[in-house]
Request: fold
Amino acid sequence: MSGGPGLLVDDDALYLRTLQRSLQKRGVESFTATNAPDALRVASTRALDFALIDLRLGGAESGLALIEPLRQSQPEMRIVLMTGYASVATAVEAIKRGADNYLLKPTTIDMILRTLSANPNAELPAEPEATMTPLSRLEWEHIHQALAQTNGNVSAAARLLGMHRRSLQRKLAKRPGPERRPETES
Reply:
């Protein structure tokens, strides 16, 4: 990393402070914003080397909408979208809009710094162990994709998914588990 300042955008103020402190301990200066207008205001007044943007910014705001204006205002900035609601469609959309990379939450400061590095392949650890994404996680992502396409309308999303609205509401109330490593035979 070049060591220049960055922009952290997330609607979770506690997460923002924690991330900012962790980066500061590594010698990386950063500015924070909890919504799109504040993020654009910071970007218009400061030269930034990078932006870490959360996908969901609260309400109907999406971090995807920030990528293009940030790219236009500072073309050399590295832009990374971070989310706990990962899907292939979202990753592709982020890259199409101009993001340089995409990270899954939770992530480590080391992974963030490697991702922001001019040479992201430097000092990468050995290939991580294979993990399996549980079906419940895939279903959760698919449901949220349908919700995004219907602007959060549960009834319309249920129709799109071919299920009853109440069934969809029950599924939304459950949070899927983390990815799992395959069990090894002894």
Remarks:
- The longest helix spans residues 135-149.
